[in-house]
Amino acid sequence: MKSFNSNGDGKHKWTMVVDLDRCNGCGACTVACQAENNIAVVGEKLASEKRTMSWLRVERYFEGEWPDLRVIFLPMPCQQCGNAPCEPVCPVFATYRNPDGLNAMVYNRCVGVRFCGNNCPYGVRKFNWFRYKWEKPLQEQLNPDVSVREVGVMEKCTFCMQRIRRGKDAAKDEARDVRDGEVVTACAQSCPTGAIIFGDVKDPESRAAKLVKSKRRFRLLNEHGTEPSVVYLKGGA
Amino acid sequence: MCNAGCGIMVRTVMGRAKKVEGNPAHPVNGGGVCALGQAAVHQLYHPERLKLPLLRSGPRGTNAFKEVSWPDALARLADNMKKAEGGASYAVVSNPHDAVTVIASKTLKKMGSDNLAVQGLSAVEGRRLAAASALHFPDMAKAGCVLMLGSDVFAGEAAAHYGDRFGRMRRGNESKRGMMIYAGTRLSLTAASADRFVAAKEGSLGVLALAVAREYVSLLKGRGTVNPKTAAWEKALAGNADASSKTGVPEDAIKKIARDLYEHGPSAVIAGDDLTAHTNGAQALAAADFLNSILRETADDKDGVWPPAEKLSGYETIRKSTGVPEKFAPLGPLLASAANGKMKLGLIIDSDPVQALPAGLNARKALEATGFVAVFGCFLNDTTRYADLVLPDHQFLEAWSAQAAVTPHGTPFFNAQQPVVRPLYGTMQSGDAILKAATMAGFGIGVDTQEALLLGMVGDLRRNLEGVPPALDGKKAWEHVLQRGFAVASAKPSSAPGGSAKNPEAPRVDDPLFTGLAPDDFFLHPYTAANIGDGRVSNISWLLEMPEPMTSVKWGSWVEINPKTAARLGIADGDVLKVETKFGSAEAPACIYPGIGPDTIAMPVGFGHLDFGKHARGRGANVMSIVGDVEGKGFDYTAFRSVKATVTKTGKRMELIREGNPKGDYEGEVFQL
Amino acid sequence: MDEQERPPQHQEGERRMGGPRTEMPSLEELRGIAARKGQLKGLDIDLTMPEAWLNQYSLSPMFYTTRAYFVFTLALSSVVAWGAACWGYQIYVGMGVAGLRPPIFWGIYISTFVFWVGLSHSGTIVSSLLRLTKANWRRPVLRGAEAMTAFSLMVASLFPLIHIGRIWRVYYMFPLPNQRFLWPNYRSPLAWDMLAISVYLTASMIFLYTGLLPDVALARDLCPRGNWRKKYLTVLSLGWRGTHRQWHVYEKASTLLAVGVLLIAPSVHTIVAWDFSMSITPGWHTTIFGPYFVVGAIYSGVAGVISLMILLRWIFGLGQIIRTVHLYNLAKLELVMAVTWAYFYFVEFMTAWYAHNPVEFRIWEYQWERFPHLMIVMLGGTALAILMLSFHKVRTSPRLLFLITVLINVGMYIERYLIVIPVLTHRDNAYTWTDYTPSFVEISVAVGALAFFLLLYAVFSKLLPVVTVADIREGKIITGDVRIGNREVRVYADVEEPL
Fold this sequence. Notes:
By secondary structure, chain B is α/β, with parallel strands linked by helices. Chain B has 23 helices and 24 strands. The radius of gyration of chain B is 25 Å and the shape is globular. In chain C, helix 5 (108-132) packs antiparallel against helix 6 (142-163). The two termini of chain C are 38 Å apart. The model of chain C is unreliable at 1-22 (pLDDT under 50). Classes of the chains: A alpha+beta, B alpha/beta, C mainly alpha.
């Protein structure tokens, strides 16, 4: 049987660096993601049931008591784990690793057993509980590069796969390598503080490749052995 | 949607706008876009947009209209313009820098009126219009330490700008990390990112500024930094001994702020609503300026925290060429005279005074007493209820426009904006509508369309813009600017002293005054939340579904209350509270929030619309409807935090819709953060 | 043996019932005879029962149907129909009609699935184990237990289908050849699970059917002419004539099947446990889950067998063959399982405590905070079961046994609920903590599944023999009462297989 999962042996290794010292929690990234990836608005009732579809959320943690409070913002996209817990548990290979080290999600293959969602320690996988509708003429805004998901399938952050593809295609047309900064995810692009840096760590000159060597780096819940592709830089002096 | 003037680019596919992206070269946002800006495409395709002019068919206050044709609508407007010749007309706009404001201002002048007001102009923003002193434009990015005096800049307008500057301050330079200290009455979004949060009493930040200045000067003296003005400053600042008890900030904490400002310099103070939104706001702002002037004089500003006077003075040129007004009519007296029946025509442009202004200003009464009210906008809202004529505007992505303004870090710029999509409906740009009606009424200002006006502007401007080749004529220059989306005003040699040469004189800061029903009332703290802003976008479901960053609440408004106070009063999260002030009462569910003082309650603005489409109508409570003036003080509407409120439980419950989990909020250590 | 406890003679019944092919006595008559004879303590079979009477008595549930039965099955059918309608509604509208929300993607559908799989376990384990160890008291219990296995597995295997988001794409999970060479992911515990369940279902169905053969043949022979059952009984009995060779093959086959099933059953439940323990979710990711689930399954299954046996006795008046001693022995087995189960509880909590995993601690705290009543029922139920089952009086009282075994299974359902729910609602990422309440649809489906199980059993009892007549008769043949000194002792003959 052919193995569907690659070991990240492709030409690129897309990585997101999130500088928590820069992040001010404004939430621009979440709306940018919503606009780019055709993420459904679920409405008040479903939101009250915590069924929002956002692929990226900014988690906020408190420490201490008034007035000595410390606040930490933690943008949480799919961590695109190198050793993703969601992949082996999918019975139909709907989620698999592509050669660039991303956890790709094949919506058409998904049957909706939702084990991947259970096995994700970051809780970033979302499920299409219902058929979501776009009230006319809002469907005009839908991004033609991103599929609108059917009821009953899982979805999650793709590191803006469509933008990566666009960047790679442009590079291929011009017979060159993808330049650093040519491919940016919607969240990284919109982040006012520049807290999200996206790039290819296999390109040693890229900003991301330099930043992942920072002394402030850490990864979330790596004790599970997930090897996330999202690297956080610690806040504070 | 907002007045910041960010440079944006829109990705379009097959003539449809898909995605708003920031212009990386723009001095305001540097490539970032805030949540509101992202939602512009949603607003463009909003299902509830107005498609044709509407003429009132029922009594005022009902939003009952019938559709009329544009010629008919414009004829009616022109008719009423004629009737209102002289001083009997006024206009309310939302963006002081925009081309439509220029058109309104010019048309009103032609009609013999200068009653042009801006809705929701804060004291700090108002000062920026004049761009008088470099002291008002410190650049956070270059500072080693900034003291935020109650300025929640990440949630307000220009969030993308301040975000950009903040990111650069923190990690723009790997060898030096800028420090941010936030002093205020509530742990706002900005305070959350600060290295230190200092809790001060409501209305005491001016006193705090002076106290910090005093400590700072004594530090200067103690460490032997020589400045000829030290003695004068010391003298000016003497007599602020009781600052600690007035502000509630311990003496040590004040000293520590001064020490940080000194050690990490160059430092600057950025003032905000917490400081200015009280009865002593003007004095407090002056106190902050005073502290800034000391910081500016004593620091080695090689990085350029303060914009050079030449750069700033370029604004004067573009302001004059574009016709952006320097000063606006104060809203209080204007609305009062309208309420007295002195106004025959009101033009409400892209704003919602009935919803967004404090009840004390009585915008509703003013509109009711105005002979003819024409509202320009994309949606029916609280204000259109009182309109005789509603003229549907292009959404800004369908429109030609331009803005001339100064960034908060002192770069004057001119934005040129072209439509990215064909207009979806039979709408007309407000500027065009006003120009057409004015021409019909005989008040023409010489141009027929907003586009022509813009061309004219650039014709005058082009020699004062950086990067525009002088050889280009007006049309070519306009196209040139359009390509980049903006141009920065070129620096002018200037002799302006920049506010530093004045003799040091410490301003006096009076105690703030408050209006309450009972002595143990809570301070009522209305604030702008990062998701909904001032309420102009609260019909956009993307933004309603985006959690407010601090409380993580979405789809509704709330009353923030300290956990201990809530426990004392037996209030649980989600209990509906009745917040009562002298001006009225509002009901919203309690949100137990650790970042608020035990004697304060906070409510976000922008909710509680009476009418603004199905998403906004009746959602949450409008805190502005219970805010008014302090007795005997006359009403300066910027002092919207001078009201105290009584809180009672109604017995009803309404679970808040949260993204996070209130219990999990304290469990971040699992990530070893 | 006391003189009073000796069974009364059977002349009356024998006379009236005559040979095997005559008209059957009415149900009331059979009941009357059974009631008059009273219960026999300590004896697993009444040797004085004539063969013909035994045959008819055992098959009586098949041939006599009361109005209450129709009312009962109709009620069950309507519950099943309601559950099915809810499932249809869920397919039509979307999974959202369940109370699930991120990060809790599995709810009571999965806990109900684990419950039914667990319940299915002891059916075959008990049956095959007792067969292989030649425990003589096994005989009347076998059929009921095996049928319970088959039916609860059928119900259980519905739940993965009910639970998936796109049922119309379920064939992606089967290894069907396709032009893109897309196969199921055999790294996924769910793929193992699907295989395991289907193998187990097949095996237990064959096991059940093999055991049924002689009894079906008997029923065919006893079936009055013209009865509609005759046809399918004839087909199902596969021409069983009871020849020596047939019996010989039958014995061999059932022994071999028993060995096979005995091997499959624990592995299946271990695989169900792997659905959880192969994940990295704290609270699930633990090595104890395999044996823990197997023991839990047998514990709940034996309780299920006891409850069902008691129900059969009550409903069909089968007290003459499903005797107190059988319940008594099953209760002893259950006591052993209860103690083992309690030990596993202890080990689970101790390992969590010793590992000092903060997430597991929080889950534990949350369980007590959110579900104190359920925790008390679950833990208290086990403690009560151990305590009560230790008493001889309890073990011999069907009424108390019924209550206890039902309580045990309620506790086991709660156990499965608490395995699935708190672990998911309160996992690593505290920001996503949430709460879960099963929705009306989910509860309807779960209740519908219970009704479906009972309905299957009820229909089964009318179509096929619910007790193992052949085995009982075999038992009767090899049993005898021998007087040693002045005591009468029950002895059993055993046939050694010739080497």
